[in-house]
Fold this sequence. Notes:
Elements: E1 6-10, E2 19-22, E3 34-39, E4 42-50, E5 61-62, E6 65-66, H1 74-87, H2 91-98, H3 130-145, E7 149-155, H4 161-174, E8 178-182, H5 190-200, E9 205-207, H6 213-224, E10 230-233, E11 245-251, E12 259-260, E13 266-267, H7 268-279, E14 282-287, H8 292-299, E15 304-308, E16 319-324, H9 335-346, E17 350-354, E18 363-366, E19 382-385, E20 390-393, E21 399-401, E22 415-418, H10 422-432, E23 438-441, H11 449-460, E24 466-469, E25 482-487, H12 501-513, E26 524-529, H13 535-542, H14 545-558, E27 565-574, H15 577-589, E28 597-610, E29 613-623, H16 628-637, E30 646-651
Parallel strand pairs: 2-5, 7-14, 7-15, 8-10, 8-11, 9-10, 11-14, 16-26, 17-24, 17-25, 23-24, 25-26
Antiparallel strand pairs: 1-2, 1-4, 3-4, 3-6, 12-13, 18-22, 19-20, 20-21, 27-29, 27-30, 28-29
Bound molecules: adenosine-5'-diphosphate (ADP) and zinc ion.
Adenosine-5'-diphosphate is lined by residues 126-129, 132, 155, 157-163, 312, 478.
Amino acid sequence: xxxxxxxxxxxxxxxxxxxDYAVPTGMEYAVGDLVEVPFRGKxxxxxxxxxxATDYCGKVKEVLRRLDSPPLSPENQKFVTxxxxxxxxxxxxxxxxxxxxxxxxxxxxxKILDIRLPNLDQREGLSLSGDQEAAAATIQxxxxxxxFQPFLLDGVTGSGKTEVYLSAMxxxxxxxxxxxxxxxxxxxxxxxxxxxxxxxxxxxxxxxSGLSPALRQQTWVAILEGRTPVIVGARSALxxxxxxxxxxxxxxxxxxxxxxxxxxxxxxxxxxxxRAKIGQxxxxxxxxxxxxxxxTNVDQGRYQRLVLKSRHGGALMPRTxxxxxxxxxxxxxxxxxxxxxxxxxxxxxxAMLFLNRRGxxxxxxxxxxxxxxxxxxCTSWLVEHKRSGRLQCHQCGYSxxxxxxxxxxxxEGSFIACGPGVERIYEQITQTFPHARCEMLTSDMMxxxxxxxxxxxxxxxxxxxxxxxxxxxxxGHHFPMMTLVGVVDADLGLSxxxxxxxxRTYQLLHQVSGRAGxxxxxxxxxxxTFNPSHPVMVALASQDRDSFIEAEKxxxxxxxxxxxxxxxxxxxxxxxxxxxxxxxxxxARSAPFHPDITVLGPVPAPLAQLRxxxxxxxxxxxxxxxxxxxxxxxxxxxIKTLGNVRITVDIDPYSFL
Length: 657
Ligand code: ADP
Ligand code: ZN
């Protein structure tokens, strides 16, 4: 009897290597095929990863069957391997992002999804401006040539960037290629979907965490079979097994939500560029406030910049006024901002107030003894939310009813709210302007996307006069009658040791400002700040993005910080404080010693406890040319952990908590 052939099968689990399986006699198979195999007493699905056996010499089990589906293409396999190596994640976990569905062929989810094809001859009746035309043509040429070419599509909000990439997409679709569009906040894509629908006559398929399991599986199968022309989705949509991808769009490329902080820790914008390179296709990064990383790539000639110079249809950029809050230390809404709101109401225009702080007040304490309520499992104070009548931990979501007595001094009803959160601003505005139609939109409402869509629709239709909200208001919306944007606390993001604090604050405030005056009526932005001379405020007021970026660049370059140097973080966490500390110290003793790298730490993390796990951190700073991954893999790989202590590596960290 001839020995059975052996194959390597990669399984979507947190293990860094494929397993050997024997192929049943007569079964045809190729690398990339999806197969069902027995694993740890169950059956599971995996991908044939190679045809040679590994050096495993135990007893091998047999492949149960080969799925009747297209294979995972070599391009997608290569991408999975690349991301695993770059992020130092077990390759099975990355594969899981490409196979994020329960592949049970017996369920009715196998039903075929009815996909309507975009109408490529329909015209909305708009003709592109000269700048738009030139940008679209350049991208279209790269699509035709099937070249890897990264573009930065750079233009102020409302300059018509979306129109440009929709137009470029058409060429990819005509060639029968798949297109993926990544957006930062999928729950807010109603306006984007409408736009697409108007242009192409159909809705594109979506990919996000809110899909039902059945729809998820149907969509995934359709993608693998190459039947989906366009997928619009959150960052995870990048990893789906497109066999025929021809164009990638990353809208709002600077958005911090492209960084995934759990499971596989990756920056989707950066990985999208890698995906485009592996598949030899153009990629368009879109932003009015591009990240310093992307700008540096343009400066160094790796990306091509396409610029739209002005707002479409000649709408002016809003006038920005900095309000020095040192003159009004006792107000949350300064008199000038209040007057501007009143004027706007008179003129039947809309206003938006922005405060990136959820809840009623950032701080709740006992008037009697000063006691503050803390989350039992995180290093984090509890924040009062009046709407739900509860105190909430913003780290882990733990909540409790505001206790009637202080747990410390037992005083009754002694808790007082300090400082404003968005709910408190809302309360104050409804009192100041009792006749105005006020609404509030916060990220707490994101779990009910329909409610959010309905509210956005009402604001767009001018059924709301004043909208008050957090970050979710900043993104992408087009409200024709919105002429005033008030930023309640422009300084909010500036404190803390985050390397990108200024850049992010600038981006966020610029984006919020862009909601004002998008059509005929001129817009006005008021920034309330205690630091009117801060470079971020100066840049926003003078609308001088490029000088601001230049100053940021010089500073980062001087400190050899990204994108001029590399960073990696190592986080040690576990439920036993002593174990965590011991592992951290053990790591410290074997820390790499290399002229091009600096190891900072270990120190207890600023967020010293999260969901009951104690946390310590290292930060590793390295020259651009060092192979940070190899170094980290050798270092961290050589450590035996204790108890449930986990060592997490974060390449290119965005969070330093
Ligand atoms: P951005 O993506 O840069 O914020 P958009 O593409 O959303 O800008 O364009 C802003 C507004 O201008 C939208 O309402 C859009 O429909 C309109 N618009 C853009 N380009 C054109 C054009 N060439 N002709 C007519 N309207 C346009
Ligand atoms: Zn907590």
